[in-house]
Design goal:
The complex is a heterodimer.
Chain A lengths: L7 E8 L4 H14 L3 E8 L7 E9 L15 E4 L2 H11 L5 E5 L6 H4 L8 H10 L3 E5 L1 H8 L5 H12 L6 H12 L4 H14 L1 E2 L4
Parallel strand pairs in A: 1-4, 4-5, 5-6
Antiparallel strand pairs in A: 1-3, 2-3, 6-7
Chain B lengths: L11 E5 H11 L4 E4 L7 H13 L2 E4 L3 H13 L4 E6 H17 L5 E7 L14 H5 L4 E2 L4 H18 L3 E6 H4 L1 E6 L23 H19 L6 E3 L6 E5 L2 H12 L6 E5 L2 E3 L3 H8 L4 E5 L5 H12 L1 H4 L3 E3 L14 H12 L8 H14 L12 H16 L4 E3 L17 E3 L5 H9 L11 E6 H18 L3 E7 L28 H8 L2 E5 L4 H13 L4 E7 L3 H8 L3 E5 L14 H6 L4 E4 L4 E4 L9 H5 L5 E5 L1
Parallel strand pairs in B: 2-3, 2-4, 4-5, 5-7, 6-7, 10-11, 10-13, 13-14, 15-16, 15-17, 17-18, 18-20, 19-20
Antiparallel strand pairs in B: 1-8, 6-12, 9-11, 21-24, 22-23
């Protein structure tokens, strides 16, 4: 399948511990299985949890690209956390960038300590809407918590991505790649999370 | 699950650079692999350990990098193929042995992979380990991508065997910790038999003779580099500018040249074999252009070497304009990015490039500065280190003599910042907290009247703190050693160590007991559970009062992530909203403002604390510290 733009650049962003790396790895493997050239770069502060993290995913039919996306060249930002999307836009966004956002905030320690304020999520969404061409939202963490473990939220997000038809991500590809990387252990739960994400996504309309 | 054992030649997989190198070693028929974990190198041995049994190889997590290299070298001396992997700091530890092994030479292929961390994304320095190749007169290869990382590793074993020398591979974070397509090759079907030739000893003496032999081997290596496919040129026959690059710099250069549309004006020569210099290849490339730009991370290693080479050959090559780190064209600190290269080339060629409107950048920056508060690193929810530093802070305050903690490398290094209440005061190499404490602990005779504490984790204890402790006991240094035993090498990905009771290959073994070992040294040792704050403070206070000799306190509590995976939460935590005093709390929100566990959230609407169920791991320490007893822990 040809891509609308080559390379097609995707950023998955969130907070350490949300399963950012695994999500990008599964997505990457799905695309490699479909014959694409994929490069993934993990940019992170350090190995601990709690800091901002992101993965750069570059999909191409013609070349193996570098693991760092150049300024302003993200085509889609998947945010496991809302304010992290905004942070990514400063470096990689452009007016054509799209965004898929998990609505549940993870409060930075500074916010918990009362040194800074976490904004209203609606305010963040409005701003992201202004900075992008289309945005989609869902509460992946809530869905995962309903399933009994917040760990599934990354798979919920991949399910949501599959509903957008921006990349050739389907249930079959997901199962095959996820099985390769995680084994059959908990496969059923992860697939359920994927399916729930596919159902839950909705386009965000202004205001 | 590790994909690297996939026996399907020609199949394309998405592999991390580290996995690609591990696969290359498997394809080369490696038999023995050893490492001490350290990012960005950890996954090389990590994924090999998962397939060890099936592939019939031996893999270990060694106690430190010097031992890891010695283990791999033993395999080589017995005619097998050995691999040692480490991060840049680790090569410092291993270098003592490496700079003797180069003189004695090796037999079976021996490959040392060193993963550097430009910009120190997960390191205490951004050391360029390539200097060791020159220092030790050893061949050095630098992969620029994922397929190449695999092929190069495979070839490094051949080269090492042919030369009788260890071969170094230098990777960087963006190769090691990035993923890309890798096409698999054949896996070997036969194993070698180990045999050590006892006819003559293996010694670096006579040193001068051995040194000359080493130089001869290196000269032979230079010949082998001639015509190597790892050195490539892309671009016009006579470019206006020649980029000379290696490693990740090659990917960035390609991207920048293509983005700016300079493909017919700029040529890119990539060195995969960076030491000794591939002279014939270099001569051909340098003849292409009068203007040369060096693109490499972090030090001007290639730049200095090539300039020396060009000076030596100036009658043939003519005058050159060299641009790079020395000219200030390329930054001499930090990692490079495609954007660095785009900026440099845009200025050199005066071309227009506008990736997005200026107004957009301004709006995004303003939005982020107003709406996206910074997110600094902290300890995980339920991390025992938070409790430990809390107790240390309290005990030192009670003691009142301005005691201080000398630190070390591990998750607990965050003790330098707000997460550890600013308790840790020094940070250098593995084991250096204990080492420094040896010195500080002798300064009483010069008037130092502050209590001295040192901190290290369990893995660090085995790696480098034991000799420091022996030294302290024997020489009568006075300090309190805190061993933060969380039963894991947590920072690098939970690799087993001598305290965990299992090996890299999954065998169950007798753990080496930290307390027993300390007791055998004759030092006073106690253990506490840091989650039991009151007892911890009490023992700390007691130990601080004793002013002479070395004392050891082991703070035992499992890493929250390991525990979470194994058994889930210890307690269900909730905040009784009626009892929570909010801002009226006597300690001004001790739980969130000071203790700062990410599992607690301040609800600004109600003005009270709550628990974030998606994050809390249920350690229950916050229940102990809440002055109003509003935080409740219930059995799960």
């Amino acid at each position: 399948m040809l891509l609308e733009k080559d390379p097609w650049n995707l950023v998955i962003t969130g907070v350490g511990g949300q399963g950012n790396v695994l999500a990008s790895q599964i997505l990457g493997q799905i695309l490699v299985d479909k014959g694409y050239l994929v490069t993934i770069g993990e940019t992170y502060g350090a190995s601990q949890r709690g800091g901002s993290v992101m993965s750069h995913l570059r999909v191409s039919t013609r070349d193996q690209f570098s693991p760092i996306i150049p300024e302003g060249q993200a085509d889609l930002v998947i945010g496991l956390e809302p304010i992290e999307v905004l942070r990514v836009m400063t470096q990689y966004g452009n007016p054509g960038t799209m965004a898929l956002i998990n609505l549940r905030p993870v409060h930075p320690i500074e916010v918990i300590a009362g040194e800074s304020r976490y904004p209203e999520v609606e305010e963040v969404l409005l701003k992201i809407k202004r900075l992008s061409s289309r945005i989609w939202i869902l509460n992946a963490t809530e869905i995962a918590l309903d399933m009994g473990d917040p760990i599934f939220s990354n798979m919920v997000m991949l399910g949501a991505l599959s509903a957008l038809s921006l990349l050739p991500v389907d249930q079959e590809g997901f199962c095959s790649a996820a099985q390769k990387l995680m084994g059959s252990h908990r496969m059923q739960d992860n697939l359920l999370a994927f399916q729930k994400g596919k159902m839950a996504i909705k386009e965000y309309k202004n205001g | 699950m590790s994909l690297i054992k996939t026996d399907a030649p020609g199949r394309r997989l998405l592999l991390m650079g580290n996995e690609a190198m591990a696969r290359g070693a498997l394809e080369a028929g490696v038999e023995v692999c050893a490492a001490y974990p350290g990012n960005p190198s950890s996954e090389i041995i990590g994924c090999l350990s998962q397939v060890a049994e099936e592939m019939g190889i031996y893999v270990e997590w060694s106690v430190n990098e010097k031992v890891a290299l010695e283990v791999a070298a033993a395999a080589s001396l017995a005619g097998l193929r050995g691999l040692a992997a480490m991060k840049q700091n680790g090569l410092n530890v291993a270098s003592d042995f490496l700079l003797n092994l180069n003189l004695t030479g090796t037999k079976g292929g021996l490959v040392v992979v060193v993963c550097d961390d430009p910009s120190a994304l997960s390191s205490s320095n951004e050391e360029d380990s390539r200097a060791f190749a020159r220092l030790a007169d050893l061949p050095l290869l630098e992969p620029s991508g994922f397929q190449e990382a695999k092929e190069m590793t495979k070839w490094a074993f051949e080269l090492s065997e042919e030369l009788g020398l260890p071969c170094l591979i230098r990777s960087v974070t963006r190769v090691s910790h990035a993923r890309g397509n890798v096409e698999l090759g054949e896996l070997p079907t036969q194993r070698r038999r180990a045999h050590f030739d006892t006819s003559k000893p293996i010694l670096p003496v006579p040193v001068v003779w051995a040194h000359r032999l080493l130089h001869q081997k290196l000269a032979k290596c230079r010949d082998r580099f001639h015509g190597s496919g790892f050195n490539q040129y892309r671009g016009p026959q006579r470019p206006e500018l020649l980029i000379l690059t290696s490693g990740a710099g090659f990917m960035y250069s390609l991207e920048a040249v293509s983005n700016l549309g300079l493909g017919d004006r700029v040529g890119i020569a990539k060195l995969g074999t960076t030491w000794p210099l591939p002279e014939t290849f270099l001569k051909e490339q340098l003849a292409r252009s009068q203007k040369v730009l060096f693109v490499e991370e972090v030090d001007p290693f290639m730049e200095s070497n090539v300039k020396g080479f060009a000076a030596q050959n100036q009658t043939q090559l003519g005058p050159k304009i060299f641009l790079g780190k020395s000219s200030g064209t390329i930054p001499d600190i930090g990692e490079l990015t495609p954007d660095h290269l785009i900026k440099v080339l845009r200025e050199l060629f005066d071309v227009r490039y506008q990736p997005r409107p200026q107004a957009y950048i301004q709006e995004a920056m303003e939005a982020a500065s107003h709406l996206a508060p910074p997110r600094t690193l902290g300890f995980c929810a339920g991390c025992p280190h938070r409790a430990t530093y809390w107790a240390v802070k309290k005990a030192l305050a009670l003691d009142g003599r301005e005691g201080f903690v000398l630190g070390d490398i591990g998750c607990y290094s965050l003790g330098m910042g707000p997460a550890g209440f600013f308790q840790m005061k020094t940070l250098h190499a593995m084991g250096s907290g204990a080492g420094l404490a040896n010195g500080f602990g002798q300064l009483g005779r010069f008037g130092l009247d502050q209590p001295v504490l040192a901190v290290c984790g369990d893995s660090t204890f085995y790696h480098a703190a034991i000799p420091a402790l022996v030294n302290a006991k024997y020489n009568g240094s006075s300090f309190l050693m805190l061993i933060l035993d969380n039963r894991a090498t947590a920072m690098t990905g939970f690799q087993p160590h001598p305290g965990t009771g299992r090996t890299a290959m999954g065998e169950t073994v007798d753990p080496i007991d930290i307390e027993g070992l300390c007791r055998a040294l004759g030092v006073q040792v106690k253990s506490v559970d840091p989650f039991d704050l009151d007892s911890t403070v009490e023992v700390l206070t007691d130990f601080l009062r004793q002013e002479k000799g070395v004392r050891v306190l082991v703070l035992k509590q499992e890493c929250a992530l390991v525990r979470g995976k194994r058994q889930g939460r210890l307690f269900k935590i909730r905040v009784d909203q009626d009892r929570c005093l909010g801002l009226q709390c006597g300690c001004n929100r001790l739980c969130t403002r000071v203790f700062r566990c990410p599992g607690l959230v301040w609800d600004s609407t109600s003005g009270k604390a709550t628990v974030d169920d998606a994050i809390c791991t249920g350690c229950g320490v916050c229940a102990t510290i809440c002055p109003a007893s509003a935080i409740l822990k219930e059995a799960v």
